[in-house]
Every structure is written in structure tokens, then in C-alpha cells.
UniProtKB/TrEMBL annotation:
It is found in: Cell outer membrane. It comes from the Bacteria. This is RagB/SusD family nutrient uptake outer membrane protein. It comes from Segatella bryantii. Residues 21-225 form the SusD-like N-terminal domain. The keyword Membrane applies. Pfam families: SusD-like_3, SusD_RagB. Residues 342-680 form the RagB/SusD domain. Gene3D superfamilies: 1.25.40.390. Keywords: Cell outer membrane, Membrane, Signal. Belongs to the SusD family.
């Protein structure tokens, strides 16, 4: 059963404070804590107010999955701006006065404030002290949510203001900046203490739309793996430095925690990967909640009230294409959270995730509630993981846009299995059978039964030769599994591979752009890095052949049989000629058509690849109108790209300045206690 209205009270409370700055928020304590925390009914309502903070579009409702889902070889947004901008988060350059920084920062700390107040008031209440097991569960839910807020801002800001004390109980209103390792250690210990008192999802009335014991364990594992990995650390003696990539000296202790708690989830036998990959997300689009499959905790958005999941993902669909025509029955979608044009090329051709995730068409309205597919072959593909259009007709109003109410699976069993495999591999200096079996479980779901011996068993054995190759096998599986879930750049950071993947992702775009204008000197190196034949880039489909067809029933890819789709004859390879039309087709709209210009990314006027190819990684690497490529050094100055190979390492490249600056408003309110490093101005 999908929760629809449980958080309405919390949303109203959230709206009262959503415009205030951090440390200037209204605290929940002012509406009678002694009364609220004296009965279980009122405690439930207070906990709903904590959950409601997750629904903010400046956080999990949109911004974490779009604007703050940083560019990589998976999630990708182009930029054609050849000058610095104040809000270029995805291309690694921004300023402290960027409005979205302030909005996300304030929303996250408002959530922390609600959680801190709930935990503080519940701990001192007589009903909690009496040892009620239901209240221990609710305490665990609030603590996990607090950990979510903190963990995700640490990923973006590094060392951040930290306190477990609600504002109403503080003497000093300036919360001190605390080292990220210390924060995560305290959060882990906090969850370790409450986890034994929590309940499995199958025992919860609200199922996986509330935090369970398994979700608590999975959150511990996620935080520990992040804590044990690399991250960008500031050089406090030189504020102009972009910092250095480091991991803590005791990183193995964190990996051991990550391994043990992931193993606890696995051994609980409470979750599985029985559904097909696509049906996990299609069910979410249809408000179906499954208590025992892949999702471990879904953030429960409310339709018409919160969440843009399925509006920002999936193909774009317009309300209308002209005057006086009827809108489509699902309403508008923006399709703005997209993926790299080269992402689909990384998959095995028999991997069911490839054709489900990578969307090459949008929908325009032609009247009479008909959505007509239109080719979209560009710098990016639509991420078809979620979409309003995958929902049953009638679930949305025909003039609707965002606030879809589609849940976001914040914690998944597939993630737990792959975290276990990664940690087990690190701790044992190579893969164990348990690690290989965990990887196989995730991969098995993506292939048909007849392909499992070769594509799963043989594949996993082939990447298990040593620690390094198995790690890449796990990271690649995560790449194919978690598109659009704000995972890829974090996985790369944790393993000090972000600069490497950003470097070759830039060269893919730049090199293919050069190739469109003649030849490229870089594509051989990209192919060597990718471990594929150079000829792959010679076979890119510069002309795509497509035709409209009815979506067949019981299709294995696109679920909505009421919509037409496009059949793409050559999505991943070039064709020498247009396919032959069927003799039975009489309507010209359903014949094969050619879309020219796919990957035609050369600007004849400038004699360079197009701006999108040159500037989408601007703060790390970029092209120029003089035909040169420049890296942004660790001192913030550009340096001309030198010798390139197919095996560049992080040691040969500058760091990626993915860490964001503290918002100017937070620095001002701290009276100088907060200070930006990483080359940012205060």
C-alpha cells in the first residue's frame, strides 16, 4: 500500500520554515514538546514531520538527482558556456553565492534540526524511558534519517557543521565545523547502538516506506564504505589549493564495518532480486510498494504534493504542440535528468538494463490525447529508469507536471550486495567466493537464463584474477545498475578514480567531435582505456534510422502499451543504407526515416568541436577556440594538456574539485568561524 497522506502535517510544518536560513529556522520544539512526546499517537505525528524533510525538492525530491548529480561517464548534463558561472556544479565550478547551494544547505540542516529535536525530546520522555519497543523503532528511524542528511552533505561539502543537539538547547548558536571522519564515526556508532532495537521491514505497518532494521544496517555500511574511501581534503595552509585526495589511516576498520553490516542484511534473507530490473522502477511509477524485493527504503513522496521523480527522468513529453489541442493524459515531463550519450556503449548487448535505461526519443502532443514519439539523438540520452509515462493511464491528470509522488529507492539490496563485494575484496586483497557470489546475484538479474553461464558466471570469473580487476568489475556493475541514483561520481571518488573517468569522458566527447570534422588524435587512447576496439568509434551511427511503431503488449523494455515507440535500426552502430520498408506499410509516418547529424559535433566556424564537447567538464578539463585542451591544475590555474596515454592515473592528473563551497550566507552567519578552502572565495 502506497502512503499518500501520512506526511501532510509534516509538509505543512516544513513549508512554515522552508524560506529561513540555517540556524535561523523555526524549531519543532515550540509547539509543545511535553505534550507531543507523551503519547504514541503524537510521537507518530512528530516523526512524520522528520520524514517530511526528506521530501524537499532541494534535496531528494529533485536537486540531488539532477543539479547535484555530478557529471561522469554515466550521469551527464552538457554546458555550452565558455565562461565561468556561479552555479556550474555539475562541471565543477561555482561560487559561494550560488542560490542552489544555499537552498540545499538550508534544507539539509532544517532536516537535521527536525531529527535532532525529535531524538532529544523522545530520549527524555517518560514513555520512551519505560522501554516501549515501538518507540525504540521510531528512535531508530529518526537517527537513520539524520544520518542520511549528514552523510549526503559530507559527500558534497566535506567537513561540515555538526551537532546532535537541537538549536533550542544550545548556548552557542554557531555550530562548529567537524572533520568528516569524526562525523561519520559518530553517526555509525549512533546507528550501531539503536539497530538491535529496530524491526525488520516485514514487521512494519508502513513497510519499506519507513526505515527498518535492514535499512539501518545498509546505512551503516554505506557510511563506513564512504568513510574508508578517498575524498578531497583541504590544504588549510593554502586556501588557493584545490586540495588532495586522501583516505584515513584506519580505512580498513571502516571497510570491515561496511562488510559486516552489508553481510547482516544479506543473511537476514528479508530482501531479494526476484523482480526484473525494469519492474522494480515501473512498480514505483505505479505506486506499488514491495516489502521484500530490491528496495530496502523508499522515500515516500505524495502525489500532487512532493517529489519530481518520473518528471525529471524519462522521455520529455509536452502538454501541447500548438493551440487548441488536448494535452496528453499523463501531463508534462521535463526529461532533464539525463545520461551520457556513450553510456549505452559500455553495456553488454544482451544486458537488459541497456535498452531500458537509454532513451532516444521524446514525445510531442498531436491532439486528441495522442503522444507521438520524436527522435532525440544528441549529446545525452534520456534516463528511462522512471517516468510518469510508465504509469497506468489515469494515475496523473492530463495537465500535471511535477509533484508526481513516485517513490525514490534510497537504499537497495543490489547496492548492499555490491558494497559487500567491494569491501570483501579490499579486506582480503582479492575476491572471495562470497564476494563473487554477491556480484553474480546483481548481474544475474540483467541477463536471460540462457546467457547466465557466459555473461554472469564466466564474466565474474574473468574479472576475479586479482583485487584490482575485481574492483573494476564491481564498479562497472554499479555503473550499469545505478544510473540516475547519484551514485557514480561518489563510487569513483571513493576509489580515487574520478579524475581518470572525467578525463576520458571529456576525451570521448572531444574526440568524437574532432572525428566529425576529420580525425581525432585522442580516440585511440579512449578505446585503450575502455578496453575496446578503436573501430568502435568508426562505427558510431552518425545517421540514425528510425520508424514509429505500436508498442507491443508484454514488451520486455517499455511498459506503456498505450504509447507508440520508435524502433531504432542502428542505435549503437553505423549502417551503410536505409532499411527497407515493409510492403504492408501504407502510412508514410510509419516508414523508415533518417536522422542526420548524430555525433556530428564539429563546429566548422570555429574549427573545433562544439561548445558542449569543450565545456561540460569546465572546472577540470576544457577545450578552447585555439584548438588546445587545458587541464585545471590543483592551484586553480590552467595548464596545457601534455602527453596522453590510454592508462592515465590519478597521480598524473589534477584533482576534480567536486567539493562545494560553504554558502556565503552560512559564512556570514558564522561570524567568520566558517572558511572556504579548495580555491573558493569566502
Amino acid at each position: 500500500m502506497k502512503l499518500k497522506y501520512i506526511f501532510m502535517t509534516g509538509l505543512v510544518m516544513a513549508n512554515l520554515t522552508s524560506c529561513n536560513d540555517y540556524l535561523d529556522v523555526d524549531t519543532p520544539s515550540k509547539y509543545g514538546d511535553d505534550y507531543v512526546f507523551s503519547t504514541k499517537t503524537e510521537i507518530d505525528r512528530a516523526l512524520n514531520g522528520v520524514y517530511a524533510q526528506l521530501l524537499n525538492n532541494n534535496l531528494y525530491g529533485e536537486k540531488y538527482l539532477k543539479d547535484l548529480c555530478l557529471n561522469s561517464d554515466v550521469d551527464f548534463a552538457t554546458s555550452s558556456d565558455e565562461a565561468a558561472t556561479s552555479n556550474g556544479f555539475r562541471r565543477f565550478e561555482c561560487t559561494a553565492d550560488a542560490s542552489q547551494l544555499k537552498n540545499t544547505w538550508n534544507a539539509a540542516y532544517q532536516g537535521i534540526e527536525y531529527a535532532n529535536n525529535f531524538i532529544y525530546q523522545l530520549e527524555k520522555s517518560n514513555i520512551y524511558k519505560a522501554g516501549d519497543e515501538d518507540l525504540f523503532q521510531k528512535m531508530g528511524e529518526a537517527k537513520v534519517i539524520r544520518a542520511m542528511f549528514y552523510n549526503d552533505i559530507i559527500d558534497l561539502w566535506g567537513d561540515v557543521p555538526f551537532s546532535f543537539t537541537p538549536t533550542s538547547e544550545k548556548e552557542d548558536m554557531i555550530t562548529p565545523i567537524v572533520n568528516r571522519d569524526t562525523i561519520r564515526t559518530l553517526l555509525i556508532q549512533d546507528l550501531q547502538a539503536i539497530a538491535p532495537r529496530m524491526k525488520y521491514a516485514r514487521s512494519l505497518e508502513n513497510t519499506i516506506e519507513h526505515v527498518s532494521k535492514e535499512a539501518c544496517w545498509a546505512m551503516i555500511s554505506r557510511m563506513a564504505l564512504s568513510a574508508g574511501g578517498y575524498s578531497l581534503r583541504p590544504n588549510k595552509s593554502d586556501v588557493t589549493s584545490h586540495g588532495t585526495m586522501e583516505r584515513p589511516a584506519n580505512y580498513r576498520e571502516f571497510y570491515q564495518i561496511a562488510r559486516n553490516y552489508a553481510d547482516s542484511v544479506i543473511k537476514s534473507n528479508t530482501h531479494s532480486l526476484n523482480k526484473s530490473y525494469r519492474n522494480v522502477f515501473i512498480d514505483e511509477c505505479n505506486f506499488i510498494v514491495d516489502n521484500g524485493d530490491d528496495p530496502i527504503f523508499e522515500i515516500p513522496f505524495a502525489k500532487k504534493t512532493s517529489g519530481n521523480i518520473g518528471y525529471i527522468q524519462g522521455p520529455k513529453a509536452s502538454l501541447s504542440s500548438g493551440v487548441s489541442i488536448q494535452p496528453n493524459v499523463w501531463g508534462e515531463t521535463s526529461g532533464s535528468a539525463q545520461i551520457s550519450a556513450f553510456y549505452g556503449y559500455s553495456f553488454d548487448e544482451k544486458d537488459a538494463r541497456r535498452d531500458y535505461l537509454n532513451g532516444m526519443w521524446s514525445y510531442t502532443n498531436q491532439g486528441d490525447s495522442i503522444c507521438v514519439p520524436a527522435i532525440q539523438a544528441n549529446y545525452t540520452m534520456y534516463n528511462n529508469k522512471w517516468s510518469k509515462l510508465w504509469s497506468q493511464a489515469g494515475n496523473f491528470e492530463n495537465n500535471s507536471s511535477g509533484s508526481t509522488g513516485i517513490n525514490y529507492p534510497y537504499l537497495r539490496y543490489a547496492d548492499v550486495l555490491l558494497m559487500f563485494a567491494e569491501a570483501e575484496n579490499e579486506l582480503n586483497n582479492g575476491p572471495t567466493e562470497a564476494a563473487k557470489n554477491a556480484l553474480k546475484q546483481v548481474r544475474r538479474r540483467a541477463f536471460s537464463s540462457e546467457d547466465i553461464p557466459l555473461k554472469v558466471d564466466h564474466y565474474v570469473d574473468s574479472v576475479s584474477a586479482n583485487k584490482e580487476s575485481f574492483l573494476m568489475g564491481v564498479l562497472n556493475e554499479r555503473k550499469w545498475e545505478f544510473a540516475g541514483e547519484n551514485m557514480r561520481w561518489k563510487d569513483l571518488v571513493r576509489n580515487n578514480l574520478y579524475s581518470v573517468e572525467c578525463f576520458y569522458s571529456f576525451l570521448r566527447y572531444y574526440g568524437v567531435g574532432e572525428n566529425a570534422g576529420g580525425t581525432s588524435q585522442y580516440l585511440d587512447y579512449v578505446a585503450e582505456h575502455d578496453g575496446v576496439e578503436t573501430s568502435r568509434f568508426d562505427k558510431l551511427p552518425f545517421s540514425v534510422y528510425y520508424r514509429r511503431i505500436a508498442n507491443p503488449k508484454n514488451t520486455d523494455v517499455y511498459p506503456n502499451t498505450a504509447l507508440e515507440i520508435l524502433e531504432i535500426a542502428n542505435p549503437y552502430t553505423n549502417l551503410n543504407k536505409k532499411p527497407t520498408d515493409d510492403e504492408s506499410i501504407t502510412n508514410e509516418e510509419y516508414t523508415w526515416k533518417e536522422y542526420q547529424g548524430n555525433f556530428g559535433w564539429w563546429n566548422d566556424g570555429k574549427g573545433t568541436p562544439t561548445n558542449q564537447c569543450m565545456y561540460s567538464f569546465y572546472g577540470f578539463i576544457r577545450g578552447s577556440e585555439n584548438g588546445m585542451i587545458y587541464l585545471v591544475g590543483n592551484d586553480g590555474n590552467t595548464q596545457m594538456l601534455g602527453e596522453v596515454t590510454g592508462h592515465m592515473t590519478a597521480a598524473q592528473l589534477p584533482v576534480v574539485r567536486y567539493i562545494l563551497p560553504y554558502p556565503s550566507s552560512a559564512i556570514q552567519r558564522s561570524a567568520g568561524a566558517y572558511k572556504n578552502y579548495y580555491g573558493y572565495a569566502n
